[in-house]
Amino acid sequence: MSSAIPPHPDPHGPQVRAATLVRRPGLWLVPTVLSALVALVLSLLYMGGILNPSDNLHRLPIALVDEDQGPPSGQRENLGRRITDTIAAAGSSETAVDWRRMDRAALRDALASGKVYGALVVPEGFTASVAALTTNRATARPRLDVLTNPGVGSLGSSMASQISQTAAHRASLDIGEQLSASAAAPTARLLLADPVEVVTSVGHPIGRHSGLGLTAFYYTLLLVLGGFIGGNTISSGVDTALGYADSELGPWHTRHATVPVSRTQTLLLKMLMTAGISVLTTTLVMVATIGILGMDASHLPTLWLFSYCATVAVGLGVQAINAAFGGIGQLVSMFVFIALALPSSGATVPLEATPGFYRFLGIFEPMHQLSEGVRAILYFDARADAGLARGWIMIAVGVVAALLFGFAMTHYYDRRGLRRLTPQPE
């Protein structure tokens, strides 16, 4: 039997066997190269962003609040000022942490808008409580407060808490060294070696059904996947219905008569269908996550509108990429909306704890922009400055970019006469 495949094989004649085809190098080349590249690049992208978050820390924002009053009579130094000055000076000499000095009112606002991952607070009367340790007036250990912000994500909040606790314990040991030097009895020196209690509490609480701050990421992932899968499904379905692609369901194969339509009009049809079908998919996502599973969510009309626009923006981007790149469009859009977007989202690992490449991707990759908007709605009272305003802006930019790019490419193809028309018999 000849290894060549006839251009129009007789379905009732001799069939080519797989054993014959598998020996053809040309069949192996493209799938092998693409599969290998995808596996290599995905491995580097996903694992490269999460392996060393502590080593990659770059200006993680943590609030530093000094509420300590002036020293009591007879004492010269304000310990609250000394502690915060020391911590801020150490932070300014490196780039791992961005210690942001603020008062209590600014702290509440920063926690409620997700601008800081946590806080270290020197409470009122700290200096006086330390001074009382060396007298008979001491009633309790001096205290430093560490506040967490779970709405920014469990990992980011945990990292900020660990950093704040480490700084607080270092300050306690420094104060203890000074107090121990003036203590006469060995027992007193032992008790004063680490005199400050570090108390950790939640600075901005979120709901119990919020996945420890991860529901914003997974909900955003549902929106992106809905737009991505929906866009590709619509694209394939339209091409099949218009006769530009075969339809196979199990052993059944059909191909419809080709409808003479330009690339531009085909793209317009797919985009209109994307906008229409996204109404249903967005509603079902909210019904499943909030209505059935009980996810904590407020501002439901805002959440639905943002979710719908986000899904449409991704879907239009998929349609534009498929129209421009043809058969490899799904692979290209997978990298744009999934492969590059997930590790640069900043929703699980803070962007401040990822290598610079991912922080650069986070400037424009859709997953980061959308997760910031969803997080603002779910955890931060739908505040514009918590990321919602930027989310809306980037959705608008994405829609405009998809429309301009998609229709520019199809219009160019149509003008050059690069038609998709392959007539099929009725």
Automatic annotation (TrEMBL):
Transmembrane region(s): 28-51, 272-293, 305-325, 332-351, 392-413
Main location as per UniProt: membrane
Cellular compartments per GO CC: plasma membrane
Coiled coil feature spans: none
Localisation per UniProt entry: Cell membrane
Protein's membrane topology: Multi-pass membrane protein
Keywords assigned: Cell membrane, Membrane, Transmembrane, Transmembrane helix
Stored Pfam families: DUF3533
Chain ranges of the DUF3533 domain: 36-396
Family according to the record: Belongs to the ABC-2 integral membrane protein family.
Name of the protein described by the UniProt record: DUF3533 domain-containing protein
